[in-house]
Amino acid sequence: MDANSENRERIREHKVFLVATLCEEADVILQHAHQGKLITPREYRNLKDVGNREKMTIDLLDKLMSKGEETCCKLVEILRLDNILETFPSLVGHAIIAHPRTLQDQVTSEIGQYTITQIPRGTCVIINNVNFAGLSKRTGSDEDQKSLDRVFRWLGFTVVVHKDQTAAQMKDLLKDLGKTVNGDCFICCILSHGSSDGVHGTDDKIVSVDEIREPFNGINCRNLAGRPKLFFIQACRGHKWQNAVQVQADDPEGNESELEVDAQRVLVSIPADSDFLIARSTIDHYVSFRNPLKGSWFIQSLCQQLETHCPQGTDIQTILLAVNDEVSHEGFNKKQMPVQEVAMRKKVILHVPRVQ
Hints:
It is a single chain. The protein has 356 residues and is α/β, with parallel strands linked by helices. 37% of the residues lie in helices and 14% in strands. It is built from 13 helices and 12 strands. The relative contact order is 0.12.
């Protein structure tokens, strides 16, 4: 990005966020713009006469961007003021007030982002397998389902839940979805037992990760061609237990004797197909932990991090780094490390719709 237009482009990139944030107290930011001589007295009076706060904010931002980089730089400096951050707490930690970027940051900023603007954003399907023919009951998985349902509805998705699916039912369900699903983005959350060959249906038979993914590739699902497909899978990928490596003294989190595992192993194969992200609760050959009362470490962290960072305009891969870090600090002797397989071309940013 040209350094001479960095702040103007930053404002343009985050304009939707700024309008939604600043319009709540539009008079405050207008007063600062006037006091800082970013606008003329006449422009101030004209903007002041606009009755709608959202339109006032939009008109103000458009006016400031039209004045060039120096004016936009002054606006960003105003947004960094302590009293402004107190008035608009959503600005704290947001990229819009970040200080000048390094060359590496500038290269990263040039990566595009997928257009996700429709309401609803798309479909979020949750497959929640709790009761099995031969394997143990996955107590606590309903807590994960509730959290996922709440968060993705909040993010503007149509959420569809399917409970206790056999392997054949899972395959048929995913194939049917691939033929009919539409929208700017697709989310698939699978909560089940797992093995090295795939995810278990309630009849203990296997659905491979390729069978989960393939109904949504560019050939089988033309409606989602070029659009992001995100898969979040809570399942074990083996019987091994990850040992703790003491970096700093960590307090034990809860009673580990109350934890359960989503038994067996799961293989991930990311094809050449683009626009897929598959986030797994653990690395290959290892178990995943689930608290029967609170839900799984991975899904609960995912939901919490989405709620924290989506309003700030943080991209999904960065959010998943926060999930990795949080989950890696869970437990004491029993550890877990989530992992992602990524075949994305752009950043995925899930903005919270203004109208819920």
